[in-house]
TrEMBL record:
Superkingdom in the source lineage: Bacteria
InterPro entries: AcuC (IPR003085), HDACs (IPR000286), His_deacetylse_dom (IPR023801), His_deacetylse_dom_sf (IPR037138), Ureohydrolase_dom_sf (IPR023696)
Domain Histone deacetylase, residue spans: 22-316
Gene3D superfamilies: Histone deacetylase domain
Record's protein name: Acetoin utilization protein AcuC
GO terms under biological process: acetoin catabolic process; epigenetic regulation of gene expression
UniProt similarity note: Belongs to the histone deacetylase family.
Pathway stated in the Swiss-Prot or TrEMBL entry: Ketone degradation; acetoin degradation
GO terms of molecular function: histone deacetylase activity
Length: 390
């Protein structure tokens, strides 16, 4: 492998726009790329643009009738009536929906191809991570499931074991559904408990189909979980499972909506903890997956305060140029934030936290603690299938 990192970017991805007032504001993508450039990280990685995913690629995950439906409402948004999840409050139809959704999917598929073929060790597509889209329906702001398509393309290229780790605040339901019965894929999702958040799935008892028992892993976190609990949960489940599974590629989804300022969810995680998990994913790729790492974006609706900083740090980690927490944000970027949003930008790459956690494996389990109960429920549900002790 070359050891280089690749960043997927095409300015046209900002056309993924559900309209004024929708939480999925494409300005979050533009501001992230402008911050990457302001820090000079675009010179530390290879910036590449891929073609939109074609129908044959989209059909690796999505049904042909659904692709046809997306194409129809893309050409005539007024025809959308809620069928196939298109034209709903979450997924309003807009002109060019098919084209830009396929473009985002193409970036994630190309990232996976580059890593598998050894052109780069790491590839990032922060515009991707649209993990709710189902084979036959749009869902949760997601039209085409680029994360599942990236995994499916890796399998098509010959990968025998692919691990997908999702740390978005919402359950990675679409990716889990795509590989429910496929023992070649391990899906791990850490998310807010389904009792309190969309999509109301991701219970620890969801462990995969008959042909892939234990290959779906779900850790449902209590609302209000902060840095210490989030990190404790991640390290209590993810490293042991990856070490046992030994994937040939690690695909990760880094939704920034776990943050305490996110308006759509109820966890209390800081940028500093998000940085720590991204760094852990990088290390786990080297420890368990021969360094092959595909990192995607995802949710995140604090579009100025959180998303650009979280995903710029993700790019920096992939490039081997992790930014110190106290790093000041460039003034030209702060001016760009005001120009585009009329909002004041943050000043540093940190929330001022120093994340730490108690290691679950070293004792200290509290049977009365809801977080520890959640961790143990997940370990009991899936660890035995991997030869591990709960």
């Amino acid at each position: 492998m070359s050891g280089r990192a690749q960043l997927m970017w095409d300015e046209a991805v900002t056309g993924y726009d559900f309209g004024r007032g929708h939480p999925m504001d494409p300005v979050r993508l533009a501001l992230t790329m402008r911050l990457v450039e302001a820090f000079g990280l675009d010179r530390a990685v290879s910036v590449e643009a891929a073609k939109p995913a074609g129908d044959s690629t989209l059909r690796l995950v999505h049904r042909s009738d659904y692709i046809d439906a997306v194409r129809r409402v893309s050409a005539d948004p007024l025809s959308a009536d809620g069928s196939y999840g298109l034209g709903t409050e979450d997924d309003p139809a807009f002109a060019g929906m098919h084209e830009v959704s396929a473009l985002i999917a193409g970036q994630s598929v190309a990232a996976a191809e580059a890593v598998w073929r050894g052109a780069v060790e790491h590839a990032v597509n922060f515009t991707g991570g649209l993990h709710h889209a189902m084979p036959g329906a749009a869902s949760g702001f997601c039209v085409y499931n680029d994360a599942a398509l990236a995994v499916a393309r890796l399998l098509e290229l010959g990968a025998e074991r692919v691990a997908y780790v999702d740390v978005d605040v919402h359950h990675g339901d679409g990716v889990q559904a795509a590989f429910w019965d496929d023992p070649r894929v391990l899906t791990i999702s850490l998310h807010e408990h389904p009792r309190t958040l969309f999509p109301a799935t991701g219970w620890p008892e969801e462990i995969g189909g008959e042909e892939a028992r234990g290959q779906a892993v779900n850790l449902a976190l209590p609302a209000g979980t902060g840095d210490a609990g989030w990190l404790r949960a991640f390290h209590a489940v993810v490293p042991e499972l990856l070490a046992a599974f030994q994937p040939q590629v690690l695909v990760t989804q880094h939704g920034a909506d776990t943050h305490f300022e996110d308006p759509l969810a109820h966890l209390a995680v800081s940028l500093d903890a998000q940085r720590a998990v991204a760094d852990s994913c990088h290390q786990l790729a080297h420890r368990c997956a021969q360094g092959r790492w595909v990192a995607l974006g995802g949710g995140g609706y604090a579009v100025v305060e959180v998303v650009p900083r979280s995903w710029t740090q993700l790019v920096a980690i992939a490039a081997g140029r992790q930014l110190a927490p106290e790093t000041e944000l460039p003034e030209e970027w702060r001016q760009e934030v005001y120009r585009l949003t009329r909002l004041s930008a943050p000043r540093r790459m940190t929330d001022g936290r120093t994340p730490s956690w108690r290691d679950f494996a070293e004792g200290g389990y509290d049977p009365a603690d809801r977080l520890d109960q959640a961790i143990l429920a997940t370990r009991r549900a899936v660890f035995p299938y991997h030869g591990l002790m709960p």
